[in-house]
From TrEMBL:
<protein>
    <submittedName>
        <fullName>Uncharacterized protein</fullName>
    </submittedName>
</protein>
Length: 258
């Protein structure tokens, strides 16, 4: 089950309880394969989690420029070798994940625009045998989307530490800092047809990765994806060419091979 929640609303206040996208998921690249998240990360972070979500409108309902504040508290989802070795889910221990987002948008013609800012904090209570330690996860993110006629330009950039559970640091778990960014340009040719191109990268700190990740480790990933798309109602059909270039630290017989 991807998204499932109950919602109550009064005026400009909405409260959701259940599983929903977190505030870090403000912009999605246009794609039929959802390539921007996961193992080959392109700088997009955030995910769907069960929790409590508050959305508060801050501007007048009749204002052209809308301002909304998002606040979410949701279940921890950290994992890693220590959790597997000790039979404990480290993500269930500590301070729940907390995110706050600010969304500003103006959807009047001819230029439509959105700006999104978000922050993340959590604290994992790591357990290894009789040893207990805390690991804080932090992230900040900024994104925007501009639409003028048939043209669209959008993108996100983030910096974070210990947020592998939010698809950061190339899905590697540990005290690892890093940044990521993606951008996409597209144009719609009349009804149905559109063309898009995206570039993205995720670049964790090499020293942190080598210190925290045993065995094979991912040091950097870049992608470029051009796409031709045709939409028929709710159905999207596309031809995408996906190229990923990943830098690895590989081990062969205990020796490093890059």
């Amino acid at each position: 089950m991807r998204l499932a929640y109950v919602e109550v609303q009064k005026g400009q206040t909405r409260l959701r309880l259940g599983q929903n996208w977190t505030p870090m998921v403000a912009q999605f690249p246009n794609s039929v394969t959802h390539f921007a998240m996961g193992y080959g990360s392109a700088g997009g972070i955030g995910f769907r989690n069960p929790g409590l979500f508050l959305y508060q409108g801050l501007s007048s309902p009749r204002a052209a420029t809308k301002v909304r504040l998002d606040l979410a508290v949701f279940r921890g989802s950290w994992t890693g070798p220590k959790a597997e070795a000790d039979g404990r889910d480290e993500g269930e221990i500590g301070v729940p994940q907390t995110e706050v987002g600010l969304n500003i948008s103006n959807q009047t013609q001819p230029l439509k625009w959105e700006v999104n800012l978000a922050g993340h904090y959590d604290r994992k209570r790591l357990v290894q045998g009789d040893t207990r330690s805390n690991l804080e996860g932090k992230a900040v993110q900024a994104g925007t989307k501009l639409t003028y006629g048939g043209a669209t330009l959008q993108g996100n950039a983030y910096w974070g530490r210990a947020i592998g559970q939010s698809w950061g640091q190339l899905l590697q778990f540990g005290d690892i800092a890093g940044y990521g960014t993606w951008g996409q340009a597209g144009y719609r040719f009349g009804k149905g047809f559109s063309a898009w191109v995206m570039y993205g990268q995720d670049n964790p700190n090499d020293g942190d990765v080598l210190a925290e990740v045993p065995g094979n480790a991912r040091l950097k990933n870049e992608i470029i994806v051009p796409m031709l798309r045709y939409d028929v109602g709710p159905l999207g059909i596309a031809l995408e060419w996906y190229r990923a270039n990943t830098d690895w630290r590989l081990l062969e017989n205990g020796q490093e091979v890059y």
